[in-house]
Design brief:
It contains 6 helices and no strands. The protein is mostly helical and 95 residues long.
């Protein structure tokens, strides 16, 4: 594992011991999961943000905002990205 990832994992583990940080982290988990999934898909397909944006007919800045977790992405946008990359969009609510 990359040293910077180990450092981040340690930082995250320590930070999550603070109840305020943990509460906010949990609140933002859905955005983090979407951002992580998009980054992973894009990297697996060896696409730049710009290339993916062109393929999905959306702005590159939209891809950047989704990947940073600062955009609450719509299902329609996720569908465009999935279609453009040949991925299958799956959404589930688990109890």
């Amino acid at each position: 594992m990359n040293k910077s990832f180990r450092n981040f994992d340690h930082f995250l583990t320590e930070s999550l011991k603070d109840p305020v940080v943990k509460r906010e982290y949990d609140r933002l988990e859905p955005e983090f999961l979407v951002a992580s999934a998009l980054i992973e898909l894009r990297q697996k397909k060896q696409l730049t943000q710009t290339t993916l944006a062109k393929m999905a007919h959306i702005d590159q800045s939209e891809i950047a905002r989704i990947e940073s977790g600062s955009r609450n992405v719509t299902v329609r946008t996720l569908h465009k990205i999935a279609t453009a990359t040949g991925a299958r969009l799956t959404i589930s609510l688990v109890r």
